[in-house]
Write a structure and sequence with these properties.
The chain is mainly α. 72% of the residues lie in helices and 0% in strands. Helix 9 runs antiparallel to helix 10.
């Protein structure tokens, strides 16, 4: 009985020493020997596992997403692609499909507003931006869009109000600088008009 107790203590001590020695040895080894190489094999994730990835790497056009997109996601993606390529008229049916599937999606209303703005359909653009704000009052891009609509409609005081609200909600420093520049320009125009009225 006493012999078993000694063997257990001895075995425990040896295990502890082996663990400490292994930790000490690993601390002197270069990182690549412990972690392995860091080559990224994620691009081969769509290849069947029985194929050699070096020979069977799929092209981007052949690669299929692991999860199929919903009709809403696909319509949104198609609409954005057309919009980014300045095919505004062609994007309209896709935005309408998105809004049919998700009528309270603020981003869809905002993007539709920008399409209408590009097509010079200012009343519809204003309506879309305002609808986005009904669903999300902090939607900064809707205020940016409204400010541009008001500028085109020659309603600079309303444009200034919308742009100031955009500055309040936005986190995008690039566009915040553009917004400050627009505010300076619009305020200068209003001040010039007031000066011209006072000094005919």
């Amino acid at each position: 009985m006493m012999f078993d107790e000694i063997n257990k203590k001895l075995l425990f001590g040896i295990t502890l020493i082996v663990i400490l020695l292994a930790g000490t040895i690993f601390s002197f080894l270069p990182a690549y020997m412990i972690e392995g190489h860091r080559k990224d094999f994620s691009s081969f994730a769509l290849s069947p596992s029985y194929q050699n990835p070096a020979e069977q790497k799929p092209s981007q056009s052949q690669a299929q997403p692991l999860l199929k997109q919903t009709p809403l996601q696909q319509a949104f993606k198609d609409a954005v692609t057309l919009m980014e390529n300045q095919h505004y008229h062609q994007s309209l049916p896709f935005w309408h499909k998105v809004l049919k599937l998700a009528p309270t999606l603020p981003e869809a209303h905002v993007n539709l507003g920008f399409v209408m703005l590009e097509l010079e359909r200012l009343a519809e653009a204003e309506k879309s931006f305002n609808q986005a704000l009904q669903y999300r009052p902090q939607q900064a891009n809707a205020y940016w869009g409204l400010a541009l609509v008001y500028e085109k409609q020659n309603k600079l005081p309303e444009g200034i109000g919308a742009m100031r609200t955009y500055l309040h909600f936005s986190n995008d420093e690039t566009y915040k600088n553009k917004a400050r520049s627009a505010l300076w320009e619009w305020e200068a125009k209003i001040n010039k008009k007031l000066t011209d009225k006072q000094n005919p």
